[in-house]
Known about the structure:
The chain contains 5 helices and 4 strands; from the N terminus they run E-H-E-H-E-H-E-H-H.
Amino acid sequence: MKILVIGATGMLGAPVAQALQAAGHTVRVLSRDPQKARSRLGEAFEFAAGDVENPASYAMAAPASWAVNPTRCAESRRGIMPAWRQSRSISPI
């Protein structure tokens, strides 16, 4: 499965991304700075530039992907998740 991980450079997201990759999934990491994310996580991942507060950026990063959002609770309080869910026909897992 191809999975977009939002927040993969964070304390919760990094282990999630690594576990998904180790389980055989293709993992694409959404990051404001893909080079910095690559240096932190390594070459085993795909990287896409984007910002969780810009729905267009992650919509382009996940044309056929499911999305994982380890920091979903914090983002929901800021009202980002409802906009994200409406912007794509993908489901969080």
